[in-house]
From TrEMBL, chain A:
Protein's recorded name: 2Fe-2S iron-sulfur cluster binding domain-containing protein
The protein's annotated pathway: Alkaloid degradation; nicotine degradation
Oxidoreductase found in the keyword field: yes
Keywords: 2Fe-2S, Iron, Iron-sulfur, Metal-binding, Oxidoreductase
Spans through the membrane: none
Automatic annotation (TrEMBL), chain B:
Protein name as it appears in the record: Xanthine dehydrogenase family protein molybdopterin-binding subunit
Aldehyde oxidase/xanthine dehydrogenase a/b hammerhead domain mapped to chain residues: 29-133
GO molecular function list: iron ion binding; oxidoreductase activity
Keyword annotations from UniProtKB, A to Z: Molybdenum, Oxidoreductase
PANTHER family reported in the protein's UniProt record: ALDEHYDE OXIDASE 1-RELATED, XANTHINE DEHYDROGENASE
Alphabetized InterPro entries for the sequence: Ald_Oxase/Xan_DH_a/b (IPR000674), Ald_Oxase/Xan_DH_a/b_sf (IPR036856), Ald_Oxase/xanthine_DH-like (IPR016208), AldOxase/xan_DH_MoCoBD1 (IPR008274), AldOxase/xan_DH_MoCoBD2 (IPR046867), AldOxase/xan_DH_Mopterin-bd_sf (IPR037165)
Lineage summary: Bacteria, Bacillati, Actinomycetota, Actinomycetes, Kitasatosporales
Pfam family, one: MoCoBD_2
Amino acid sequence: MDRLSHATAVTLHVNGVPRDLVVDHRTTVLDALREHLDLTGAKKGCDHGQCGACTVLVGGRRMNSCLLLAVAQDGAEITTIEGLSEGGRLHPVQEAFLERDAFQCGYCTPGQICSAVGALEEMASGWPSAVTDPDRATDRDAEIRERMSGNICRCGAYVNIVAAVGDAGRHESPTAAAGRRAGQTAAAGTHAGQAADEPGEASR
Amino acid sequence: MNPPKGAARQHTDTRTSAPVRLEGRDKVTGTARYAAEYAPDGRVYAWPIPATIARGKIVAIDCGQALAEPGAIAVLTHENAPRLGETGDRTLAVLQTPGIAHRGQYVALAVAETLEAARATAAAVRVEYAPERHQVLPRPDHPDSHVLEEADDEAPEGWQRGDVEGAYAAAEIRIDAVYRIPALHNHPMEPHAATALWADGQLVVHDSSQGAGWVRQTLSELFGMDRDRITVVSEHVGGGFGSKGTTRPHAVLAAMAARHVGRPVTLALPRNQLAAVVGYRAATEQRLRIGAAADGRISALAHEVVSYHSTIGDFVEQAAKPARSMYASPHSRTSHRVGPLDVPPPSWMRAPGECSGMFALESAMDELAVACGIDPIELRIRNEPDRDPASGLPFSSRHLVECLREGARRFGWTPGPRRPGSRTEGGLLIGTGVAASTYSADVEPSEAEAHADASGNIRILLNATDIGTGARTILAQIAAEALDVPLDRVRIEIGSSDLPYAPIAGGSTGAASWGWAVHKAATALAAQLADRNIPLSEAGLRMAVNTEADVAARSAEYARRSFGAQFAEVQVDRDTGETRLRRLLGVFAAGRILNARTARSQFVGAMTMGASMALLEHSTMDPAFGDHPERDLASYHVAVSADVPDIQAYWIEEEDPHLNPLGVKGIGEIGIVGTAAAVANAVYDATGVRVRTLPVRVESLLPNLGAR
C-alpha cells in the first residue's frame, strides 16, 4: 500500500464487525469487500451499476456497491450476503431461493437476495414503487417484479425469484421485520416519502 | 414406445419433491467461489487494452507513462509477451503480432499490484496504429462470400432435395419473406475471468469456462507443455450460454501474465469488452420461400441465410439447418452465404443455428397459415413428416404434434384461422401466437469414476461442468439411483481437468454424455458391491469407465432431436406501439426429465432469454468504428423481472429407448428455440402487423397501428 499515493484509513462495519482498512481512493465498496476483506459473495457483473450483482445493504438500504467509493463510506454499516445467515441458519429469503430454485449459475444470486431483503423492507415500510396505485389493492407480484428489476439474471430465473421473494415476504415474522425497521429508523427516516427508484439503489 | 397422447403432467409448481441443487446453499450464502475469487499469495491483477481500430497494425506502443503508474508491474505487448504455440483457434494467438483483425482485439495487457492500479496502468498505455480500410457490413456480393461447404453436406449450391425452384413456381400459395435478426450477445452474469498460477513447472488456472478439459488442451498447445503439467478448474461458473464453451483470450492472457511477472494473476474482463472477445450470435438475414397447396400442404421450402464470419474465425450461424428436418416438403433447399468481415469473431450462443433459423421458419409458417386461412397448429400437423426429411431416417421420437395439442389445451388456444386485431382491452390490442421448437439430441463420449468406501459412501468423479444447469445434482441422482443409495450418500466432484475426461457443457449434450458415463460407472460399481459378501477394505472399491465404444455403437438408424411447442400472449398499446409480453407457455418432448425442479428452470430460463430476444435485445454494427456500440448492460437491454410475467413449462413424459441408457435428450437449449417466433406471431395476431425484424419495436408497429 505504501506505493499508492492516494489512500485513506477508513472503518467499514461489515456484518457487524468493524474492519479497518487503508483504501485507495479509487476503491469501490465492492472491491474493498472482494479484494481486501475476502468477502467475495457480492459479485462484479458490470462495475457500472447496471446489473445489481453487487447489491449489499448499507445502513439497511440496498445499494449497488460498485457505485460507492469506500473512502466515502467511513463508518458505514454494511451487510453482505455472508452476513444474512446466522450461525448456519439461513435468512428466510435464502431459504426461499433454495426451495424455489430461484437461481441457476448463482452469480447474480447474492445481489438478488440482498436486493430482495431491502425490497421487502421497503414494501413493509409502505414505500411506494412505480407500480404502486394508492387507489387499488396491492398487486404483490407486480410490486416484487418492479422492485427487483434492478437485478439482472441472465439465466432467466425471474419467475422463480418473484415466487421466492413472495414466499419470504409472507413467511417473515412481522415482529422481526418491525424490529429491524426500528433499528433502521435513522437511515430510512431521511428517505421517507421518496420513491424507491433512486440512483445508486438497486432498482431500474 | 410412444406414450399415451396428452400424457404431459403438470409441472408448474416449483415446489416439487425433486432434489434441490447440491451447491445451492453455497450459492445463496455467497460462499461458492468463481474464477476471479481465488487469491493465491502474492496475487496481482491484469487489465487488458483493446484495439481501437478495426483493421491494420500497431506501429508503436509507448508504455513509459504506464509503467510509471504507482503499483504498475508490467505491460505485455506483442514485443515482450511469451511466444505461443499454434492452435486451430486464431483468436487465442494474443499479443503475438502487431496485426489487428478487429476492433476490441487485445493489443496489450497491464499488470499491477491492485485492481485500481492495473486499470490506471492500462489507461496510460499509448498505442499508435496504422489503420487500413475495414469492411464490417455483410455484402452478399463480397468476393469471398460463398455457400458454406462445412454446413453438413452443403454443396456449393446449397443443400437440396428435389426441385425446389420448379415446385415453388408451380405452388398455389407462395410465401416469400426476409427475416432479420441483429447480432445478439451472450452476456453471462459472470464476466469471463481467470486466475493463473505457475509453481514448480505446473500451471494452475481457475477459469470461468464451460469445459476445463478443453481449456487445458488449448493451454498445453499454446504453452508447449504436457497436459499433465496443467490443471484447469471451473468449479462454479456464472453462466456461459456458449460464450465460455471454447477457450477464450482471458485465460491465455492470465497464464501469460503470470509467467511473465512470476506471480499469480487474476484477469476479470470488464463487461464492456466482452462483446468483442467472447463471441456472439452473428446477425442473419434469412429469406424463406414456402410453396404450398391451398390446404397448407408444403411442396417447396427454401431457407437461404446471409451472414458472416470474422477474418480470424470460421464460425457460421447455421440458421437454415433446422428447416431440413421440421416439415415434410418434397422439394427443399437450404444455403448459407457468408464472407469474412473485419468484425469481432461470432461464435456459439445458446442454440446456435436453431435459435436464429426457427425464428424465420416459424414466422413463415405463421404467414403460410394466414395465407391459407387455417389454424397455425393445424398447418403444422398437416405438414408433420413420418420420418426425418433431412436424413430419411425415422425419428427416435418426435411428439411435436403432442406438444402442440397439449400446449393448445393448457394455454387455452382458440382454434381456427387468425383474426388479427379482433381482441382489444381498452387501448390494448391482444394477440396470441404459436411456434414449434427443436434441437439436436447429441451425445459425446465421456469418462467417469465411481468409488465406494467402507462406510458405504459413494464418490463420483468426472470433469463435467455445472454452469447453472444443475449438472451436479442430476449426476448425483443418476449415481444414487443406479446404486440404490440415498442421495446424501453420494459426493460428486466435477469442474477440474484433473478429474476423468468429460466433454464440455454445451450443445445440450451434458446430461446424456456425462450421465451415460456416471450411469455406467455406478452400475458397474453396484454389480461389484452386490457380488461381495465381505465388507470393503479401507481402500474401498473403484470403477473407472469410458463410454467411447458405447456411443460409437449407438444405432445410426435413427434421427434424434427434441421438439416442443411455444405459445405467447402479448398486448400492444395502440397509442404508443409498446409490446408487453403477458404470458408464455411451452410444452417439450425432450426425453426423460431427471429433475423436475432444475429442468423446469432450464426451460423457463431459456424461454425468458427467448422473450428477451424477441422484444429487447439489439446490437448493431457501427460501420465507421467497426464494432458493436451496445457493449454494456445499459445499452444492450436484456429482460428483467418487470419484463417477465407468467412463464410456464411442461413436458411430455417421453420414453425413447434409442438415445442412451438414461433416455435423456438434453434440455439446455430447446427452450429458446421458437420463443421469438411465438411472440412475433402473437404481435401479428394482436395488430395485423407482421414484424420480420427483431426485436419487435415501436418503430415497426406504430406507423401501422392507426390512430384511435
